[in-house]
Amino acid sequence: MIMIEYTRELLNSNCDLDFINSIVQRAHGTHKIIAKKVLENNREGKKKLLYDLTTERDFRGIFQNLDLKYQFDYELSWKFALEIIVTELKKVFTDSNIYYENKEVKNVYDNTAVHRLIIIDWS
Fold first, then answer.
1. CA pair distance 65, 86, nearest whole angstrom
2. What 8-state DSSP symbol labels residue 70?
3. Structural domain includes residue 26
4. Residue 35 pLDDT
5. Is the residue at 1 inside a domain?
6. Residues 58-109 pLDDT 10s
7. What is d(CA 117, CA 107) in angstroms, rounded to the nearest whole number?
């Protein structure tokens, strides 16, 4: 279990702390999956892994259970959660370039979906 540092910035940010905790704790459980995918990519000669949190089965349930009666800033909540996840992954992949990126993708109906990507680049 990862201990989240509840800084003043985080506590005063209007973020959904339960949401952040859920994302971070589930991501902690996926470190082994991410490591396995990095090793598979490395064997295939690839030098980068893009891991899309928003399409992973373990994370989709969080989005369906959001309590939208409160007016939390979910973009900022994602930012804090992703920063914590990247910090934890840097402890595992010590000299790789690890960062997160939000990609907006439009479908054929012009609906926009945001994909939350964790990128591990060991080239």
1. 24
2. S
3. yes
4. 85
5. no
6. 666 666 566 666 688 888 988 999 999 899 899 889 999 999 999 999 888 8
7. 18
In a domain, 2, yes or no: no
Which structure tokens are listed for 69? 């009666």
C-alpha distances out from residue 100 to 35, 50, 69, 70, 110, Å: 16, 9, 28, 26, 24
In the beta sheet, which residues pair with residue 49? 120
Domain that holds residue 40: 9-121
Q: Extract the tokens encoding 32.
A: 């082994």
Q: Is the dihedral of CA 30, 121, 42, 51 positive or negative?
A: positive
The 8-class DSSP code of residue 49 comes to E
**Strand residue runs (E) in the chain:** 48-52, 97-106, 112-121
Token pair listed for 45: 């000669």
Amino acid at 106: K
Q: Within 13 Å of residue 27, how many CA atoms lie on the same side as its CB?
A: 27
